[in-house]
Amino acid sequence: MTEWDIKKLQILRTLRDRGTVTATAEALLMTPSAVSQQLTNLAKQLGVRLLEAQGRRVRLTDAAQLVLRHAEVVFAQLERADAELDGYLRGEAGQVRVAAFSTSVPALLVPAVRQLRTAHPGLDVRIREAEAAEAYELLTAGEVDLALSLAAHAPSARDPKYSRAPLLADPLDVALPADHPLADAPGLRLADLAAEPWIFGGSGPWSEITTAACEAAGFVPEQAHSASGWTAILAMVEAGMGIALVPRMASADRRGGSGVVMRVLSADQPRRHVVAAVRSGAEEGPAVARVLAALRQAAAARETVQQN
Predict the structure, then answer these.
(1) Are 185 and 305 in contact (CB under 8 A)?
(2) At 95, which helix (H) or strand (E)?
(3) pLDDT tens sequence across 160-205
(4) E-strand spans in 158-247?
């Protein structure tokens, strides 16, 4: 296969554009003899004659013009590669893989991705739904670049393998059947619901969050039913089978249901805390930094909405 030397091809192109060896040498900060030597070597590499004398000047042969027609395609592709690489180095291109728990996807990740598509369309964010244990396994193995989880189930802030960034304090509201006697009671507190049947997961993060919030209010909740999906939990609440603590991120799109009343627990203010984590040092990568910034922006917007 013929050897194509990009540097020598650029010299040939400059000679075509400038017209003389002297002008080419000046443009490329070379000596005229160096220009002539490089072009002689290129002709030997390609096995064709590239230049012919024309008085005191030289002109490009038809073979040289053919070579340059194909070289222009290569130069254009290299320009595109340079531009894309520059975007990658500035965090405007590349791929960032994110593992995230289910309710964080529509509440935080989707708004962040929308913002990034507008501001940095060359940045590709890939989402993988995963609970904390799996998310951190994927992060450690290098299969994702960023993990979203609840702070209670994230690695310790002292773990040197990860860098954590707090994103959101998500309030927990209580879901009551619409006809519940306390559905419109003023100043409702968790302690007022101590004798109620509760619906939450049999194990895992949501079981721990519910029991911890209730214990902080002075009682242990009686678990009447076990479920982990919010559709199932709210359907049972609507049917009068029990009550449940629901994160506001999960309930935001369900407030319009007539069979369930979402009550804010202003006095107790139970919350779950959402954090992002990356492998230590990775937060300095420009693409990951842009995704983290977009997530913080989405979290701040959600907190503003929640306060209003």
Answers:
(1) no
(2) strand 93-100
(3) 888 999 999 999 999 999 999 999 999 999 999 999 999 998 666 7
(4) 162-177, 197-199, 222-225, 244-247
